[in-house]
Design brief:
Belongs to the darcynin family. InterPro entries: Darcynin. This is Darcynin. By secondary structure, the chain is of the alpha+beta class. It has four helices and four strands; from the N terminus they run E-H-H-E-E-H-E-H. A four-stranded antiparallel beta sheet has the order 2-3-1-4. It is globular, with a radius of gyration of 16 Å.
Length: about 120
């Protein structure tokens, strides 16, 4: 996949289900490699994904998946692909999907606001 400026960023808030926790670590890795990765690689193009563990900071969600997509259609394909895998509702409960546009306010109004602040 080529590098791109994402048009949309999505934060998928997940909570592990018992079915996931009952798998050993090698079984979890295998399940991910055998069902999620092929589905994403087969159906979704022009997306990037990052994964964050949160179970040690909150009881509401255990994981956050951050997806960046070239456009809304690319992100829609991610969701369609994930829904067809056991990760959607079997291994994880999808608690919430938050979709946004980075610095959308400044882009919309032509305001010169920083997109990233390093302090």
């Amino acid at each position: 996949m080529s590098d791109f400026e994402p048009a949309v960023t999505a934060f998928i808030l997940l909570k592990t289900n018992r079915a996931w926790l009952e798998l050993s670590v090698p079984e979890r890795v295998a399940a991910f490699r055998e069902s999620v990765l092929p589905a994403i690689e087969d159906k979704a193009k022009d997306v990037r994904w990052r994964y964050y563990d949160t179970e040690f900071y909150t009881a509401r969600v255990t994981d956050i998946w951050v997806w960046e997509a070239r456009d809304h259609d690319a992100f829609q394909l991610v969701i369609e692909a994930l829904r067809e895998t056991p990760f959607w509702d079997h291994y994880f409960e999808v608690v919430e999907i938050l979709v946004g546009v980075e610095n959308g306010y400044a882009k919309h109004y032509g305001a010169d606001l920083p997109m990233t602040v390093n302090a």
